[in-house]
Amino acid sequence: MSVAVATPQAAEPVFHVVDEHAHPEGASTMLGFWIYLMSDCLIFAILFATYGVLGGNYAAGPAPKDLFDLKLVALNTAMLLMSSITYGFAMLTMEKRHVGATQMWLAITGLFGLAFLSIELYEFHHMIHEGATPQRSAFLSSFFTLVGTHGLHVTFGIVWLVTLMTQVARSGLIEANRRRLMCLSMFWHFLDVVWIGVFTFVYLLGVLR
Amino acid sequence: MTLNSAPVDAHGHDHGHDAHVAAHAHGTLKSYLIGFGLSVVLTAIPFWLVMGDVLGNKQVTGLVIMAFAAVQIVVHMIYFLHMTTSAEEGWTMMALIFTIVMVVIALSGSLWVMYHLTTNMMPAHDMIRR
Questions:
Q1: Which segments cross the bilayer (chain A) (predicted)?
Q2: Nearest chain B residue to A180, by CA
Q3: In this predicted complex, what is the ipTM?
């Protein structure tokens, strides 16, 4: 970038950026997507704060100790962690432009995501079956809102994943698709970061309480 | 490692401010595996501490597992989300720092204020618990 200033030779001074450089398509996508993730982070922060405030109000109902099965949560955490590393492998194979391997790792990631969701839905179903519904107490309302919002994010992540697999199958690992896969990568790893907060603050500290 | 593999990058070199998609770093197999290994350890230890009641003191256990969570979040940020101070000319880091400040204010503020409200105005929840 250079700004032409009035020089003896130049008759008319130019006060704008002369060499307007090109901004290729998608140049700011990653930063924009990161800022979206940060705003999503604020949503989760508020839900965590709500849970932190209301998490002790059982209204004479069930407490975390009666409801949470840590073995199940550990399994769930493992599923999400595995899906994170397999998505990493998908990114590495994407770099090498191996369409088949990328698709395979994406599919495996999706399956781990589905396993996570299934276990979570099983847990919710079990809790609701025992009468621990979101309406039961402030603790349960905030619990279902926080964990449910995370689960909803994972659900949409899987929908997005399937969409991108279809896109890659149709037009290969073109630049647009690689960019999209990188956005989903950030989204997916971000959900894993949020889950660290969930299993620590909701489940582990809940059982300790 | 950049998205635009080697030759395409000429433009990006001339203009440092053109931090394209290319500026977004990727991990290597090694960095992903290191991150994964650390995450497994940092996840397993808190679960072990709580499930096995290893420390025998709830408050200490709580503080320790929170410390583990904080470390694991940093590990994920570095090895999976590839956060660096230089990505996108530091703007991702700026956004992250701003978000962390907001999160800390929202979380600590809510807990602090509401804790005092609870102790001042409502029967302690221990009294009405079950």
A1: 33-53, 73-92, 104-122, 142-165, 186-206
A2: B21
A3: 0.85
